[in-house]
Amino acid sequence: MSETQYPNWLDEKEYPFSGNSTQVNGGKMHYVDEGAGAPVVMVHGTPTWSFLYRNMIKDLSEDYRCIAMDHIGFGMSDKPESWDYTPEAHALNLQSLLRKLNLDDITVVVHDFGGPIGLSYAIEHPEKISRIVICNTWLWSLADDETVAKAAKIASGPIGKFLYRYFNFSAKVLIKQGFYEKSKLTKEIHHQYIQPFDSRSKRSGTIGFAEALLGSGDWYDSLWHRKDSLAEIPMKFLWGMEDGFLQRHMLEKWKTAFPDASVEEIAAGHFVQEEQPATVNQVIRDFIE
Questions:
Q1: Alpha-carbon span 74 to 185, nearest angstrom
Q2: How far apart are CA 239 and CA 248, in angstroms?
Q3: For residue 145, which of 255, 257, 250 has the smallest C-alpha distance?
Q4: Cα–Cα distance between 246 and 122 in angstroms, integer?
Q5: What does the alpha-carbon distance between residue 72 and residue 209 come to, in Å, rounded to a whole number?
Q6: Distance, CA of 129 to CA of 184 (rounded, Å)
Q7: Residue 108 CA: distances (Å) to CA of 189, 233, 273
Q8: Number of domains forming the structure of the chain
Q9: Which residue positions in the chain have pLDDT lower than 70?
Q10: In the chain, which residue ranges form alpha helices assigned H by DSSP?
Q11: Which terminus has fewer CB within 10 Å in the chain: N or C?
Q12: CA–CA separation, 261 vs 255, rounded Å?
């Protein structure tokens, strides 16, 4: 484990945390480890990084140990141009980190691609998980979802890859489309999501996730078939109901599979942590306590 030096563009008032890193497959993985107490592990998707969870960390670290990593290719972690940028590979890295930290009694919070990545750990190690918070994500093949599949085919095709690589399309354009209240994504906050991908060579991670929307479908389904191992773990769905990417019928599928889970429906888009941070923090606090 070692400390991470942050770049000059990082707004350390928004993100006032010490940086840590550990060696995983693909290079150095950066992570935040703030506070003390029962651990809350936060797993991000694309094109975000642990910055997405900054407001949660500031609040919850007063009473809990908050851990949020940046996947390889994202945030402050290494960004090799060529690597196995599949969620399966990211999941193995998460497993490596949590093994090194030797955590128990974990509340795991997942969002976007962080869903299958984080829940794969919970499925493998349910004895270490005390609670699960699920925010706008999935755990099954998306091939039969017409809206997602159509967008995924474009994003992972030649035109999509060109836009991702040469124009940083995911961080510059798609993240805007994920907001219900567009004003919540200020230029200053948006800058913190754009800058990790400030050169073409650093954008393989977002391309990898675009390919994995459909390309990792068999892996998602393999996790879904094992979802019963999560049945006894208290679960909260914290869902942005105005999400144009992962629409309401996905929440209904979750609720059908886990009928005992509690549900918090929030007037927000895909990035609920950005649009409604105070509500999100309070819901999670109440759930843990």
A1: 19
A2: 9
A3: 250
A4: 22
A5: 12
A6: 32
A7: 25, 11, 15
A8: 1
A9: 1-3
A10: 54-60, 87-101, 114-124, 146-155, 158-167, 169, 175-177, 187-194, 204-215, 217-224, 248-257, 272-275, 277-288
A11: C
A12: 7
Rg (CA), the chain: 17
φ and ψ at 122, to 5 degrees? Answer: -65, -40
Cβ proximity of 189 and 274 under 8 Å: yes
CATH number at residue 256: 3.40.50.1820
| 8 A C-beta contact, residue 75 and residue 30 | yes
Amino acid at 151: A
What whole-number distance in Å separates Cα of residue 223 and Cα of residue 233?
16
> In this predicted model, what pLDDT tens digit does every residue of 199-219 receive, in sequence order?
999 999 999 999 999 999 999
Q: Are 162 and 257 in contact (CB under 8 A)?
A: no
Give me the DSSP letters along 2-64: EE-PPPTTS-TTTS----EEEEETTEEEEEEEES-SSEEEEE--SS--GGGGHHHHHHHTTTS
Give 171's DSSP letter.
I
Give per-residue burial for 216-255: e unless 16+ CB within 10 Å, then b.
bbebbebbbeebebbeebebbbbbbebbebbeeebbeebe
Structural domain span for residue 23: 2-288
Q: How far is CA 161 from CA 1, 155, 195, 269, in A?
A: 34, 6, 19, 25
Phi, psi of 33 (to 5 degrees): -140, 95
Quick: pLDDT tens for 142-151.
999 999 999 9
Q: Which amino acid is at 217?
A: G
C-alpha separations of 180 from 69, 274, 285 in Å:
26, 11, 24
Q: What is the pTM of this model?
A: 0.97
